[in-house]
Amino acid sequence: MQLSVLDQSVACVGRPQDESIRNTVALAELCERLGYQRFWMSEHHSLPAIVGTAPEVLMAAVAVRTRSIRIGSAGVMLPHYSPFKVAEQFRVLDALAPGRIDLGVGRAPGSDHRTAMLLNPDPRASEMFPQQVRELQAWVGGHDMPEGHPGHGIQAFPRGSTAPELWMLGSSGYGAQLAAHFGLPYSFAHFITDGEGCAEALELYRHRFKPGALQEPRANVCVWALAADTEEEAWRLFASRERARVDRQTGRFGPLLPPEQAVRPYDEAEEVYRRQLRGKAMVGTGEQVAQKLRALAEELEVDELVVITWTWDPFAQRRSYELLAQACGLQPA
C-alpha cells in the first residue's frame, strides 16, 4: 500500500494564518524524507478554517524545497479559471520539478456562491467543466486544438520532456464518470463524505473506464486519519477536528481550536453525529491506524491512500505522519 498526503493549510486559533502556509511547506519536506508517494495541496476561498487558497503558488514553494516526492493540487477548481492559463501555470511547475507534478482538478466551487461569483461571474461556469477538462488535457499534454477551435495553434509553454499528470477529483459519481470518459486517474474525497458513496463511485469509474491518458483505470482515496504515541493522546487531539466537523453541520466555520478549548456541550442531533463521526474515525496509535488504512484499501481495492490530518499543534500533525510511515513500512528517502 502506498501512502500520500493532502494538506489544506488549516487556520488555527492563536496562530497567524501565514504560519499555516509555512507549516505546509515544512510538512512536505518531512513527508518526502519519510517516503510518502505524493504531497497534494487543496484550494478553498473565503473559508475561515482553511487558508490554502492558491495551490499552484504553494506547489512552487514546495517544488524548490523537495527533490523526489510528487507534488499536486487537490485540486484546482477549474470552473473558476481559464484552462489555458492553468495549463501554463502547471507547465511552469513541471519545469521546476520535472516529472513530479500532479494536476488535480475538480468542479466544486471550494467556496460559497458569492465567493464563486467573484472568481468567475458566469453562472454557467460549472456546466462547461467537461469541455474545460478536454481543453486542459490537450494543452497540458502539448496537443493542438482541432480546426475551428478558438485555441487552434495556441501552445502552452514552457515545453519539456515531461508533463503534469492530470487527475480527476470528486466526492460523487459525476467525477468518477468524467474520469472514466477521459481515461484519467481518479481520486475520491472519502474525508468529505465520511466514506459515503466511495465504493459506488470507484465501481462506476472502473466499469465505465475508456483508455485515454491511461490504458487501465487507476484510483486512490483521500481519507482523514490521526495517529499519536498513545490511543488516549490521539483521541485527545481528535477533539479539535471533532468540534470543527460538528460545527460545520450547522454552518459554523472557524479556525481550529486547541483540544482543551474544543470540547463543548452538544445537543441531541449533534451528539448523534458526533458518535457517528467517532465510530468511523481512523484514530489511534500508528499501528492501530495503519491496520484501519490497510483494511480500507483492501475493501476498496486501491493500492494508494492519501492521508489528510488536522491538528491544532503542527508538531502533533508531523508526528502522526511519522508514526504512519513507520507502521506502514514506508522507505525513507
Shape: globular
* CATH secondary-structure class: Alpha Beta
Give the tally of β-strands: 9
- Please count the helical segments: 13
CATH topology: TIM Barrel
Task: Describe the fold and architecture.
- The protein has helices at residues 17-34, 55-63, 83-96, 113-119, 129-141, 173-182, 190-193, 198-208, 231-248, 259-262, 268-280, 286-300, 314-327, and strands at residues 2-7, 38-41, 70-77, 101-106, 165-170, 186-189, 219-228, 282-285, 304-308.
- The chain has 333 residues and is α/β, with parallel strands linked by helices.
- The protein has one domain (2-227, 285-327): Alpha-Beta Barrel (TIM Barrel), CATH 3.20.20.30.
- It has an eight-stranded parallel beta barrel, surrounded by nine helices.
- It is globular.
- Residues 4-301 form the Luciferase-like domain.
- One of its GO terms (molecular function) is oxidoreductase activity, acting on paired donors, with incorporation or reduction of molecular oxygen.
- To bacterial alkanal monooxygenase alpha and beta chains.
Architecture blueprint of SSEs:
Layout: E1 2-7, H1 17-34, E2 38-41, H2 55-63, E3 70-77, H3 83-96, E4 101-106, H4 113-119, H5 129-141, E5 165-170, H6 173-182, E6 186-189, H7 190-193, H8 198-208, E7 219-228, H9 231-248, H10 259-262, H11 268-280, E8 282-285, H12 286-300, E9 304-308, H13 314-327
Parallel strand pairs: 1-2, 1-9, 2-3, 3-4, 4-5, 5-6, 6-7, 7-8, 7-9
Helix pairs in contact: 1-13, 2-3, 3-5, 6-8, 12-13
Short description:
By secondary structure, this protein is of the alpha/beta class.
